[in-house]
């Protein structure tokens, strides 16, 4: 699987396009500008960056673009490729691997040895795990796990990373025996 090239951002780029190329953009927008994190500050996928900036106190669109790009570079430091993950698993037999997907997804297909991330497991990790040991989090495609790994890093886990492309990329690049799937949203 090849990583898609980053789409250049402009004032006319839609939020849907932004999120496709920069999965952590919603978290970045919320953290700095309180945009997109809740119902009162939500945005439409078809809204452009220029429209978003006008609607939010005439923010400087170039500043917002720079912030999204800088945040994306920071997100890259929190990620591990499927092949790097496979090598780390081989070298670290007691590696903690957390699945941040739903219970149903976890029960359907999982990376062997991973644990479903529940609130109880998070509390155990924060209270008892070595915060300097590597821990890898994954989801379906790699976007939700970015938020989860940022949460772990914020709580002192110095070697927390998330799997780039999620279990989907892992199943294509490392373990082709894992079935791939798509999530269908009911209308």
Automatic annotation (TrEMBL):
InterPro entries in the cross-refs: GlpE_sulfurtransferase, Rhodanese-like_dom, Rhodanese-like_dom_sf, ScdA-like_N_sf
Domain annotation Rhodanese: ranges: 91-179
Record-linked CDD domains: RHOD
PROSITE patterns referenced in this protein's UniProt entry, alphabetically: RHODANESE_3
Regions that span the bilayer: none
Pfam family, one: Rhodanese
PANTHER family: FAD-DEPENDENT OXIDOREDUCTASE, SULFURTRANSFERASE YTWF-RELATED
Name under which the protein is recorded: Rhodanese domain-containing protein
Phylogenetic classification of the source organism: Bacteria, Pseudomonadati, Verrucomicrobiota, Verrucomicrobiia, Verrucomicrobiales
């Amino acid at each position: 699987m090849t990583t898609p090239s980053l789409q250049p951002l402009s004032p006319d780029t839609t939020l849907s396009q932004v999120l496709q190329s920069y999965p952590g953009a919603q978290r970045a927008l919320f953290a700095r500008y309180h945009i997109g994190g809740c119902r009162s500050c939500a945005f439409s996928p078809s809204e452009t960056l220029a429209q978003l900036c006008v609607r939010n106190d005439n923010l400087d669109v170039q500043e917002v673009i720079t912030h999204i790009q800088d945040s994306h570079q920071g997100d890259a430091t929190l990620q591990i490729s499927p092949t790097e993950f496979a090598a780390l698993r081989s070298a670290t037999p007691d590696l903690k691997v957390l699945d941040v997907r739903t219970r149903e997804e976890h029960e359907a297909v999982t990376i062997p040895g991973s644990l479903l991330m529940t609130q109880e497991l998070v509390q155990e990790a924060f209270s008892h795990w070595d915060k300097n040991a590597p821990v890898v989090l994954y989801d379906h495609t790699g976007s939700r796990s970015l938020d989860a790994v940022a949460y772990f890093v914020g709580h002192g886990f110095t070697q927390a990373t998330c799997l780039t492309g999620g279990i989907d990329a892992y199943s294509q690049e490392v373990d082709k025996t894992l079935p791939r799937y798509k999530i269908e949203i009911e209308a």
